Amino acid sequence: MRYYVSRQSYWGIEPEERYCVEIAEGGLNYANPDMLVSKYVEGEYDNTLDAVNAAIEIRDAWQSDEPELNIRIDYGFTGGYTMPFLSQNTDEELLQWANSQIDNMPKCSRCGKPYEENCGWSHQFSDYEFCSEYCTNKDWDEVDEEDEEEGE
Prior knowledge:
The chain has helices spanning 48-65, 91-103, 133-151, and strands at residues 3-9, 19-25, 43-45, 71-76. The protein is α+β, with helices and mostly antiparallel strands. It folds into 2 domains: 3-103, no CATH class; 106-152, no CATH class. Strands 3-1-2-4 form a 4-stranded mixed sheet, with helices on one face.
């Protein structure tokens, strides 16, 4: 899953809820359209923990630059529509959510790195899935070495 982190100034809601660092599940195409010009480390992230840490960094920098604003962080999935995220999450709640998302992701059989569901790599001599071509090739090399040792 990709996560797009952006600063938002939501239109048509209460002023105290207007400013949000948004973590949109699905990437840029699923971020709300009220996005402000990128100023900090906004962008796309591969996992929730990186996205949450970036969102906290953005919120803190933005709040420092504009102390009169009430800036919050929220996450969600828009389905490609406009849908402001309106929850009030603490940093601890955000980090718990991020870790639960990572815990539920499939992991590489070689290095343990999480990868997107249905995006795992494999090869014909393995029942396992890997996060990348690199890990797949490393596993293949080990199978090939075992075959050579058995042939001696």
